[in-house]
TrEMBL record:
It is an enzyme of class 2 (transferase). The keyword Disulfide bond applies. One of its GO terms (biological process) is tRNA methylation. Its cofactor is [4Fe-4S] cluster. Residues 44-283 form the Radical SAM core domain. GO terms for cellular component: cytoplasm. Keywords: 4Fe-4S, Cytoplasm, Disulfide bond, Iron, Iron-sulfur, Metal-binding, Methyltransferase, S-adenosyl-L-methionine, Transferase. Signal peptide: none annotated. One of its GO terms (molecular function) is RNA methyltransferase activity. The keyword Methyltransferase applies. Its EC number is 2.1.1.-. This is Dual-specificity RNA methyltransferase RlmN. Belongs to the radical SAM superfamily. RlmN family.
Amino acid sequence: MGYVGVRIAPCVLCKLLSTDGTLKASCKTSRGLCLESVLMPMGWPRSLTLCASTQVGCAVRCRFCATGRRSCAQSLSGSEIAGQALRASSMLGPALRNGVTYGRIVLMGMGEPMLNYGAMVRAMAVVAACGLHGVRSARDITVSTSGIAPALYRLCRDMPVAIALSLHLHDGLARRLLVPCFSSAAVLSMVDSCFYYLRVGGAGRVTVESCLVRDISDRPSQANGMARSLARLACMVNLIPMNSIGGGVYSPPRCRCTAGFALAAAQGRSAIVPRIPRGLDVRASCGQLRA
């Protein structure tokens, strides 16, 4: 393909275009793995954000996420990860490509990037060096993680990308209801690693993500606790109302609970930014990717 380290881009099996301009692509790799990527035209000057996958399935098994319902996780190679960026522009028609001035990549698709660390870092190094998908530097890359602290310390040294920490709940014991594979004592170590990342990483920035699940993580008391836990971490808190994934015992929050959570969380140092869902009609929004 002309780019060192990218031997082959995933083959696009089908594309679904949302009414809001979001494009979901189901792709197949040379190893026969099926994955999903999402392209989102956003902002002005107009940017194109690629939500890329690092695994097929996910071993973290978050209760509110369709990807975690797969029986096991299979890690993608560095070529397969970077190949999604290489393929992205070809997935768009000329009408959608017009006016796009630069690109961003968020590793928020299928899988936990930190459980495929080596391939993920190699892929993003190629993306940044070659300017794939219009990425100008590592600053245009965001790695979303459920909070594997040792990998965060390592990433700080290897590549100062932006970090999105999927915290959801400040109470470690309650967090295990939603993210069962983590110990109840892990929350403090996550916050400490993010504090270190900001202090030492320099170019990196940290966003804390909170998926609001009805009657579990959408309560103002949880928001107050999160504000206390993040008191020394100057960051943005991204509120993500749970999206419907069909079946299961968990539900999206009530609108009034979302507003109450935001009001309570705003008492801390962090900026509170609700996330606007994209691609709901083609099941391309947060937590809906499954392939």
